[in-house]
User: What shape does this take?
Amino acid sequence: MNIGFIGLGIMGRPMAKNLLKAGYALTIFDKFAKFDDLVSLGARAGISNKDVAAQSDVIITMLPNSPHVKEAVLGQDGVLDGAKVGTILVDMSSIAPGASQEICAAVKEKGLVMLDAPVSGGEPKAIEGTLAVMVGGDTNAFETVRPILEKMGSSVVHVGEIGAGNVTKLANQIIVALNIAAVSEAFVLATKAGVNPESVFNAIKGGLAGSTVMNAKVPMILDGNFKPGFRIDLHIKDLQNALDTAHALNVPVPLTANIMETMQALKNDDLGTSDHSAIVRYYEKLARIEVRR
Ligand code: NAD
Assistant: This one.
């Protein structure tokens, strides 16, 4: 089976590497990033999204947001211009659920099948091949690509119709953002009260407050290491998609609105390209203290 991979950024690059390691034939393309390293590992260099599509039975996209996926799939020299009837398009980007449904309807008219399959776990789990993958769309297509997804993720779950993957991802992103905010507020308080934050971490990480988020982000905070990882700008994008989706359904999401404004303030402080663990900087600024080792 020939696989096409479009979007070789922080996440796409290690995910594509894992497919190469598993022995899949890969044709790859990115509009802006270089990908010579993957070509030297055996991938074929595509010259456009259309070219990738023409070489592939399954096409994976890993792009920033809805407009990028629309451009790559439906735009000039895009996937639809090159793909054969019966090709399965697996969009693993985190985009608006409504956009997944629109793109699915457009590709269906040309005889393609689409799944939305966003991921959680960030760069470390993309490298390990242990992402959580949440998939929406046709169940037969899901069973066909499941072995491919299992090379990138340790948890691959079908959650419903097209768009359901991205609804699940929005829920994930709300929980992650608010979890980092809660950890940040609590660690700023503990530090200002004179307790070593590393000791606080060691004392509570095994209890009810412990979480995957705490284990991943507190060590970064203690080191003052805000290298992305997952950029605040991308999390703002996800929260905007969450707010739009919630409001279209008449669901008030007050906590999401609150953390969105925190992230807007961090962007104003030039932290948009920092990892989302830099949410702590907002709380540090309020209390005039830093949570460090
Ligand atoms: P990224 O910006 O590092 O990579 C995106 C890549 O897409 C870039 O290399 C860019 O050049 C390319 N691109 C943009 N438009 C294109 C087009 N029209 N055609 C071809 N290539 C194009 O982003 P990322 O961090 O890899 O994230 C990708 C997706 O995964 C996003 O939706 C993000 O929200 C999601 N995600 C990211 C993380 C993380 O920790 N970084 C974790 C989970 C999910």
User: Anything to note?
Assistant: The chain has two domains: 2-161, 167-287. Residues 164-192 form the longest helix (29 residues). The first strand starts at residue 2 and ends at 6.
